[in-house]
Specification:
mainly beta, eight-stranded antiparallel β-barrel, 1 helix, elongated
């Protein structure tokens, strides 16, 4: 059995405070053509912490909490002119890291991501066209969603980490329609 050693080797790099660019794209059989063709741009900011597995060198559990904000033009001649969404993202990643050189650590990660909507017009009914159903095109997005994330990291001198990631939408954004979101992100984290 694997045990998580939360009193793991004393390291100054267990916590990370990160910020970066993020882009959300939409897809699915019922997704409107405009949403499929246009992504929302924005940013994320938050913290994460690594918990080291006691028996497996390089393998860690890395949960985090991030605030995300995205916006973009709605593409229609109706109000609102912009689509806005903000949410809390809670990634629960398993990460494997290895030393490329004494000052350079590389890593790969994967795991589920829970998203909790906090604001923006995407969570209000009749605000923008979400799907291709001409009779009922306007829907609000669900407040909670699940994605599967994966990506890579590069840590320099145990002080700065560069992260690139992608999260695939698993749950429906509109309960009765096949609409999902995917998120691409790139950013920097400060390790302490």
């Amino acid at each position: 059995a694997l045990a998580i050693d939360v009193t793991a080797p004393a390291q100054s790099t267990e916590w990370r405070a990160g910020i970066g660019y993020a882009s959300v794209s939409f897809n699915g059989d019922d997704c409107s053509s405009y949403l499929k063709e246009h992504s929302l741009s924005g940013f994320y900011i938050g913290i994460s912490k690594e918990f080291y597995f006691s028996t497996m060198a390089g393998l860690t559990f890395e949960p985090g909490v991030f605030f995300n904000y995205h916006s973009g033009k709605s593409g229609y001649n109706t109000d609102p002119k912009f689509i806005k969404m903000s949410y809390l993202s809670v990634p629960l990643n398993i990460k494997y890291s290895f030393e490329a050189s004494p000052e350079f650590l590389l890593g790969i990660y994967t795991g589920p991501v829970l998203n909790i909507g906090t604001g923006g017009n995407v969570y209000s009914k009749d605000k923008f066209i979400t799907n291709t159903d001409i009779a009922d095109p306007m829907h609000k997005l669900t407040q909670m969603g699940i994605q599967w994330g994966f990506g890579a990291t590069a840590a320099i001198s145990e002080a700065i980490q560069i992260r690139v990631g992608y999260a695939l939408g698993l749950s429906r954004l509109v309960k009765e329609r096949d609409v999902h979101n995917n998120t691409f992100s790139v950013g920097v984290a400060f390790m302490f």
